[in-house]
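Weekly sync notes, structure subgroup
Attendees: PM, AL, DS (notes)

Item 1: joint prediction request from the bench team. They want all two components modeled as one assembly rather than separately. Inputs as received:
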Amino acid sequence: SQTIHQWPATLVQPVGSPLSLECTVEGTSNPNLYWYRQAAGRGLQLLFYSVGIGQISSEVPQNLSASRPQDRQFILSSKKLLLSDSGFYLCAWSRQGNQPQHFGDGTRLSIL
Amino acid sequence: DQQVKQNSPSLSVQEGRISILNCDYTNSMFDYFLWYKKYPAEGPTFLISISSIKDKNEDGRFTVFLNKSAKHLSLHIVPSQPGDSAVYFCAASGRDSGYSTLTFGKGTMLLVSP
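Output from the run, pasted for the record:
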């Protein structure tokens, strides 16, 4: 069966510090991978998605970036965090095509 | 512009009764629809989906209805249980994006009381 791992579960970072959140998927190959953010009281906002190694599509302009160095690894990064980057970050995977996405347990990021 | 709308932020239902969660969409290219359930501090869990070639899909206590002409779908939970209390998200995708992305509504918080 497929599993998705996302870490850390919670993170507190000062403004201006860098960020690296990692997500890995097991039990499948060539998945689509996604990063979402859920800000307080809001829905799920798609940040980035990838349909293959090295292929990244960005949905919203921001100071975040994503990379996919391996088939089942997806990394969300920032060089300098802003207060507005606080939120609940979720990684997800899906098979290609008309398929549901499956989510990790999320990372609660608080910027001080 | 919200392409997927869940107009009810919250819904309260008694245990054993039916819960009906509603969702409207505006993008006529959407032809695959999903419902997710989310507990606090956890990722959303996939519940049920429906493609536009159907108007109903059932899985146990969960049934999703799709009305393409009205661009409306609903999730019925029968009977509702206290463990169903969570935020429910409606999502949609279509061939125009190669089904590679989902557009989510803002969610409806369901509270099922004993």
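Discussion: The domain at 4-113 of chain B is CATH 2.60.40.10 (Immunoglobulin-like).
Action: AL to compare against the crosslinking data before next sync.
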